[in-house]
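Can anyone check this?
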Amino acid sequence: MEAEGSSQASAAASESQATSERIKLNVGGKLFETTLSTIRSAGPDSLLFVLSNRPANDPNPVFIDRDPEIFSVLLSLLRTNQIPSAARRFSTQELADEAAFYGIDSHFRSAAAPPPFSGIDASIVKSISPASEGLPSTFAVADNGAVWIAHGGQISSYDWSLAHTGTLRTHLDEIDSICRVWTEIAAVGSESDAGLHFYDFSSSRHVGSVHWTDPSDPRIFKARVNAITASETSVFASFDCPHRENIVLEIDKERIQIVSQLGRQSGNQAKHMVPSKLTFVPATGVLVGTAITSGAFGYSGYIRIWDPRSGDVVWETNEPGAGRSSRFGDSFADVDVDAEGLSIFKLCSKSGDLGMADMRRLGDDPWVYLEEKNPSMVNYGGEVNNLLMHCCWGQVFVGRGGSLEVWSRVQAHGGSIEAVSDYRQSLQFKNLNAEKQNIQLEVTRGGRTIKLSIFDIVVGDVVPLKIGDQVPADGVLITGHSLAIDESSMTGESKIVQKDHKAPFLMSGCKVADGVGTMLVTGVGINTEWGLLMASISEDNGEETPLQVRLNGVATFVGIVGLTVAVSVLAVLLGRYFSGNTKDVDGQVQFVAGKTSISDAVDGVIKLFTIAVTIVVVAVPEGLPLAVTLTLAFSMRKMMADKALVRRLSACETMGSATTICSDKTGTLTLNQMTVVEAYAGRKKQDPPDDSSKLHPEVLSLINEGIAQNTTGNVFVPKDGGEAEISGSPTEKAILSWAVKLGMNFDLTRSNSTVLHVFPFNSEKKRGGVALKMGVSGVHIHWKGAAEIVLGACTQYLDSNGQLQSIEKDKVFFTEAIEDMAVQSLRCVAIAYRPYELDKVPSKQEDLDKWSLPEQELILLAIVGIKDPCRPGVKEAVRLCSQAGVKVRMVTGDNLNTAKAIALECGILSSKEEAVEPNIIEGKTFRELSEIEREQVAKKITVMGRSSPNDKLLLVQALRKLGEVVAVTGDGTNDAPALHEADIGLSMGIQGTEVAKESSDIIILDDNFASVVKVVRWGRSVYANIQKFIQFQLTVNVAALVINVVAAVSAGEVPLNAVQLLWVNLIMDTLGALALATEPPTDSLMRRSPVGRRFVLLHLDLISAFYHVSRLNFTPCALPRFFRESLITNVMWRNLVIQAVYQVTILLILNFGWQSINLGDDQDSKSHSLQVKNTLIFNTFVLCQIFNEFNARKIDQMNVFKGVTKNRLFMGIVGMTFVLQILIIEFLGKFTSTVRLDWKLWLFSLGIGIISWKTNSSSENTMVTDLKEAYQTTQEVSYYCCCATTIDTRENWLVIGGGKKKSKIYI
């Protein structure tokens, strides 16, 4: 009995607590009803938090005399952490003022902050123009984004939102330097007035001055300030006197008194000038000063670093002169320091290059340069503008030629500086966020309660927890009351987890959603779940991508062949030369033993050696890395338009090699928006479910009333007529959205009745209810919950005519409707009500709080089926993946029935017959298998339900061991290990956590699976473009090598000299890579099988077996699993060989049969005729390469011109190459050893090049064609290729066959 009484008391207490969870606020005459948790999210220092702590038994709304419309915006901000679209009709200042009144200005500031600034992607957010006289002369920026701008003798202040907050008038005529010393204290200096002056913005008054004086030297007077900076305790300012003597003074911030002097100097030379910029570096405690001047002979100056503690100079450079730079004479035009990044930047005056030095490794020549062919600064003579270059928030700003260049996150790399776009969160609030993370909390240690930082907690501390706290470390619960933890940051699941003695374990980083408790710390730092997670994703396996593996093989092979050929040619040429078989154009022997001088012999050998080296240069495919980089960069840029942000460049091509995609369900395959898809009302199925015309007005009114009042959600309709904003749990949002589509006016419906009592939704009873007072005497009690529970409490229902009917005879109909929806994995919710007499409702508040709502004899209004529908286009995307040979697997935490339904809808499962183990499997079942069993089962898994992040990791590991190239999607922090382990990690840009994004290779910005397929398409384009470039390059290699080798061996000379070969090399490598790397993807790419990781060879017996396919049980889709082409396919070899044979044949005929062709002038001298011949060979060879670029565009198609006009870059490069070739032949003959050709020879060269178009054939490799035809005649269908397979681990043979016939395939 005691236990029963205790249970009832607990239930009553819970009910009372839930009732008091809601609060009414009367703002400016408009009634708002919200939850305590929402307004308490404003923080303990806010007005709302104070108002929420009113007595629980006070039924009257709290009145606040403020603007209700702005309050509605701020309430929405508290719920969603975002400013709603309704805020657009108010100015930022209005919203900021109201937010400050309620004490939630920090929330508003965070939500209203400008978008992240990322250098190269920068755009102007706002321009500031001070209203008073004077142009802006200097400015100071605070860590929180506030700005002080000096103009004339005034300082204008702007807050974090760049709104003007005040103007301070100083006694100075012009302010040339300013520094923020304290939050409201500015230190200012002027080059026209003496002294350093301090002004207080809060009181608008002058609070002190500092002047440089020296009693022993009367010349030291009226010293002006040139630069100011500040540390935590001191202000540093550079002073100079009229006679140029200068000094840097350290001033105590508290007392405004000079405490030390640094670097007093005469000022009579450039290296002794007053510093025009000062920067204090907190990380090292040093002071960096720079001075620059310019005159008739250019720029000069110094960079000097002092240690204020000792007063010594620790590093110095002067330019020009004894400066620490390898670029003598290219002195800096301006210098600035990135104190946070510990880097010094300089702008070179002659070259215009940007240089960087790492302050941690300063030496004799610490500079590395970004060579971008920028305009030089030599024309900027006169006084140097100290804002020409400025480092701020990780960016480098360079004012040049009337424009502002923004270099984002400049990094040293490989002896140069790369300017890269930083797409991370803006660094503007970095310091603010660091302070925000340094949480102070009370702990019990050694029996004493002490306050310390979250970073100082140790194992054994006892930490109290309350609502809103962050769990500071891993631990176990000691005591607790209704403690609920939000573990979404770790698990990715939004469900709140209750903690008690049965589930006492707490993970660091999680938030306390409800209740109070005390925990014992058991793990900190790396020993927490969070720490272990971070450690697991920080390891780099360093694996090469599939394309890199193939490219390494091709590059090595071509390089070895080229080197061998070059050595052979050199040996032959040297042998012919020293044996006297090499003659000049006049027939004279070039080397005669004992007669030829040593210098002539050396010249001859060097000439031959140059030819050999040139052959090596042409042969070695140094253009491959350039082609890869170009096509990856081009694809990365284009993928941004397809909602994919590439974080790791090589992931572009790896995605093209993917053989399987393990995708999440919620938010990726589905919309993550619960929606009512089926509805029953009045014993009829509503089709469509939101058609209000089929509902009786009385039924519709009761449904709207029950939904509007019996909910914890909210509907906000903007006054400008925009789309309604609906908030609440996913189920609540779905039902509210359905009601809005039916025509419900949320605010009007709620105002028509008064809430008497609320029974919040209970997970045990699976329903929630509300009692409403209707008019004078009427009461409606509405219930909503699990359909089978609510239906069991109903005795009647309203039919389509609004008439009451007994439910007994139709209960079977409603039960079957619920079962049908359950089979479709719909979440079924029933809505019911009952009228009630007002006099039966308790009149006293104490009795009303204990009153239990009547839950029997209900009248059924409607039954709705809710689900998270598939995203539009997902089914087509899955079909494209299947067609491309990429298997899509769903890995979800939902139950198997829901996962199966979505998989069938998306096309991941083609039929219900496939929905059996092991095609669909639970994570627990897969987890319990041995490693060998997991590898056997992993290949067959299509859907995995009830999976944990560790299950996803195990699946990825098993698939990779089987040779699959695996892509994985994830959004939660706990998905990070799987994202890191996979070949390609794809994180979600909207739902994904920062940890998931950091662990991924590509971020899908719209969380849509269709975007994943677009990434696959672009990845395959990378691979295809590399193949095009390789075919083009190898054709040039083979032709150039063969013609030079044959000519060298037979005639002792080569028709293509070093300069000509280098021009061919330029066409082949740089221009060819640029032209072919930017080819856009085609639809045919998604009809190919994936390349995969392994290259598989076919045994001849298997090829024979393919021709007798009736003996094998293969399907057309089985071939790509075993027959994967190499990087250089048979079609490419065919094109390459035919093109090379054609070019070599033509060139050899021209070389040895020139006289018989006789296209030149008969009266030409022998030497001129030889030059014409060599020029014609060179010209023909180059034109063949130009036309061969068209062939390379379409490797396996006859129509090589299809879509060529869409690629303007390709057309431009081809046209430019042709024009340059004309210029080389006609005007640069002396440089390239060529002569001019007449129009007949030009037409001849052009004709030879045009004919090369016809050398490619569209027919495919005979074997492959026969195999395809054989597959099409297959009668028996088997998904996994064969009726009998055997693996021989000793020989690595996979035996495939049926009956007595067996064939071998090896990997």
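Reply from J.R.: I decoded it. The radius of gyration is 39 Å.
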